[in-house]
Amino acid sequence: MLESEGYESTPLIEITREIAPLFGRTNSQGVRAFVKNWLISEQRRFLRLTNLQITSFQSMRQGEEEDFWRQWNAFIRESGVNPFLLAGFVEFYMGDARSRDWTPQLLVMREGARVVGGAPLMTHGIMGARTATFMMPKPYGMDFVAEPAHREEFVRKALKFVLEDLKCQFVDVTLPGESQNLVQLRDISGGSSLGLRYIPLRDETREHTVLKVMGTWSEFQEGRGGNFIHYFRRAQHKLDRAGSWRARSIPMDGLEAEEAVKAIEKNSWKETWRKEVGMKVDPSLGVFFAYRNSSFTDGYYPLLWLLELNGEPIAYMISANLNSVSLLCKTSFDQRFAKMSPGDYIQNVAMGRLYDSGEVSRIDFLTGLNYHRRWTSYRETRVRVVISRTIPGISSLIIALGRNKRVHNAYKRIRGRGGSP
Questions:
Q1: What is the pLDDT of residue 410?
Q2: Residue 275 in 3-state DSSP?
């Protein structure tokens, strides 16, 4: 070890001779002490970095014996970035990935027993090429998450693990436009033979509306102007004339919340659409119902905001709050009451209460739908990044084919007949 007397030897003396002139003197005990301390700190840093190991979790059972998932939830809560990284949601999306013929790969970096980094990925191979991407839908704003001191090391190790250990040819991820990891991925690719491309998103996930909480809700409403205030006042008058109504919030931890959501969805415009496409359960709702039954919640539950008229639920909104950020995840209304603008009204009530709670500094709508402009026109972007180990033109073709359902199904049929993978 450097601390031993044995290290008072030739390397230290030689380094001291090299660096001493910078201090204007030679053979200085002070310079020797400085160099020795620097070498010790560098050795400790090296040992700390080599102790940071990446592990891939493909199922919830992997972490049960060592109580890993409680540690994981504590790490996510402390990082404060995204509630959809909590273990109960990871459990759902691992199952969802497997149902779509993907392999879940939750990458975790630990320093000793402590979790210091994580990324919820999944992998899939087609035509001999394997791709890694995030498990969760793009609107949930996934990213590589790590403690600040370990962020750069985690991204570097995670990328190396995916490309070398998991043998992926592509890493195809969509990151928040403000993510520090965009620069890190660019720097890693620039210093290697990897290819990196930014691909424009062309759907509603390209941007997401964000409301930054400043002042009080009353001040916010006044700032939005008379039309904003009158719109919601008219909606409230219509509710008043229709009977007895109330707006409230309940945690999504029991049957009451699930039954209220299903009652509203049954009479929403989305029900017609689901029947047309043959969808029994909306996956973006199914995740909340499944989460309620998970054994990995650690007491955290999203909030259901309900608007009820004469004892009947007519509109809802789901928010997932973590630390100072509130994500507006899902909203719908009973179309029989559409003239009362119940969907907009319950969302406005929820935002007002979140705004004045003193616990929220940022409200994220997750998507950039036009009706969000009623509250704010400010939007933030997302960036799709593809890192590849192949020729750029070929990588574009393989990724496109891999995401094409008809090609994917044909490939599965060929494999089922004994074709080569």
A1: 56
A2: helix
Q: Which residues of the chain have pLDDT under 50?
A: 1-10, 26, 42-44, 46-50, 411, 414-415, 417-421
pLDDT at 66: 63
Amino acid at 111: E
Is the full-model pTM beyond 0.70?
Answer: yes
**419 vs 421: CA distance, rounded Å:** 6
Q: Which residue intervals of 243-370 are DSSP H helices?
A: 255-266, 269-277, 283-292, 342-356
**Whole-angstrom distance, CA of residue 192 vs CA of residue 185:** 11
Distance CA 99, CA 40 (A): 51
Q: CA 365, CA 352: separation in Å to the nearest integer?
A: 14
H/E/C letters for each residue in 45-85?
HHHHHHCEEEEEECCHHHHCCCCHHHHHHHHHHHHCCCHHH
Give backbone dihedrals phi and psi of 331, rounded to 5 degrees, phi first.
-145, 150
- Give me the half-sphere count of Cα atoms (radius 13 Å) on the Cβ side of residue 281: 11
- How many CB atoms are closer than 10 A to CB 326? 26
Given a contact cutoff of 8 angstroms between Cβ atoms, the answer to whether 320 and 84 are in contact is yes
Q: Give how far Cα 351 sits from Cα of 25, 94, 209, 221, Å.
A: 66, 31, 13, 11
Torsion of CA 287, 289, 293, 298, to 10 degrees: 60
Q: Which domains does the chain have, with CATH numbers?
A: 5-50 (no CATH), 52-205+383-416 (3.40.630.30), 214-360 (3.40.630.30)
- Residue 202 confidence (pLDDT): 81
